[in-house]
Amino acid sequence: MKSAGNAPLMETANLPARRRGWTLDAEFYTSGAVYRADLEAVFFRHWIYAGHLSQLPENGCYFLVELGGESVIVARARDGEVRAFANVCRHRGSRICAEASGKTGAFVCPYHGWTYETDGRLRAARGMPAGFDRARHSLKAARCEIFHGMIFINLGANAPDLQKEFAALDESFRIYDLAAAKVAWRETYSVAANWKLAVENFMECYHCAPAHAEYAKCHALTSSADCAELRPAMLAEAKKLGYQTRTVGGAPPQKNAPPHYYARHPLYAPFQTGSEDGRAVAPLLGAVPDYGGGVADVQLGPVSFGLFYADYAVLYRFTPRGVQQTDLEVVWLVSAAAEAGRDYDPERLTWLWRATSEADKKIVAENQKGVNSRFYEPGPLSEEEEFVDDFLRWYLAEIS
Ligand code: FES
Ligand SMILES: [Fe+2]
């Protein structure tokens, strides 16, 4: 897909400089020009989590991903290949698919009926003049790649190799075998805030004690004395069980490098997983041999995150819908063989991260209201917000 060029980046040339260790000026969260620059520099250039392979169980299955003003169709074509296309008709540009997901033998534009194969090729177009070449009017393709069962898309013209980008995470992910998992539940939270406020909130746990009692009850907060005390024994146990115990990545401030991260954090005994009562909520994932008292915290690119417990994984994706509107999609993955009702209760499975996401949705919207105030000015970050600082440095390099 073609990018709209670098005009939005030029519009942002005179933005105020940021003091290291401080939050951004309000313009970064309120300006349409910055928003357009963000779309180009972050969302149309980097790999973005689109969905999980289990959402496309058969040929002809598809789902839509909304990104900024763009709509992308991700489909398993007749040949079984997973592909992504712009949801834009090659006739006069109508949206083709309106349903968020489904199964079809062909994509038929509702406007004049141009019909596309599930691999994007134009199959039929009525009444076109002699010499019309169907082969030149396929749907515009986006890059689409799969990493451990997770489908990523990239709308940029020069997408880097995804497998290389995430290679450092490969070993840490293997034990969870997420390719053999399935989506058990999905929720989309519509957050009334700029996407950066939502991501910043996700990148720090300074707010966890005051805002997330449910989370703080089972997770030893990263900066706490408890965490320091529990970590060595948790890591020793995790190592014995075959989990990757080395921390990988972090949010690198270098331009063009995708943030990626893997680290293990301790849970309080007797919590086996992230659940209300601490007991398991689903059968163990993939090749996971036992609980081990920890949780993996991961980041895959700028706006996709995950928490991997022994029995389920939760994936987070932030996608912008407007300057002050962001979709937070949360996906719960369990072992593909697990059956709802028999092996897991969706209510128990999703309890912790529904409660946490609801709270975050409110916190972040309140943050945006304050940033919109004439009284807002950048504030100093705490030591527990170092990942926010890293993220902001990376982000500013990307849009500069
Ligand atoms: S715009 Fe799609 S068929 Fe005319
Ligand atoms: Fe939070």
Structural notes for this entry:
It is globular, with a radius of gyration of 22 Å. It is α+β, with helices and mostly antiparallel strands and 400 residues long. The chain has helices at residues 7-11, 27-30, 32-43, 162-165, 170-174, 195-202, 208-211, 213-218, 225-241, 346-371, 386-399, and strands spanning 48-52, 61-67, 70-76, 82-86, 101-103, 107-108, 115-116, 122-124, 141-147, 150-154, 181-191, 248-250, 260-266, 294-300, 304-308, 313-322, 325-335. Strand 6 (107-108) and strand 7 form a beta hairpin. The protein contains eleven helices and 17 strands. The longest helix has 26 residues, at 346-371. The protein has a seven-stranded antiparallel β-sheet with strand order 1-10-9-4-3-2-5, with no helix packed on it. It has a seven-stranded antiparallel β-sheet with strand order 11-17-16-15-14-13-12. It has two domains: 48-159, Rieske [2Fe-2S] iron-sulphur domain (Rieske Iron-sulfur Protein), CATH 2.102.10.10; 180-399, Naphthalene 1,2-dioxygenase Alpha Subunit, Chain A, domain 1, CATH 3.90.380. Helices cover 26% and strands 25% of the residues. Fe (ii) ion is lined by residues 201, 207, 211-212, 356, 360. FE2/S2 (inorganic) cluster is lined by residues 89, 91-94, 109, 111-114.
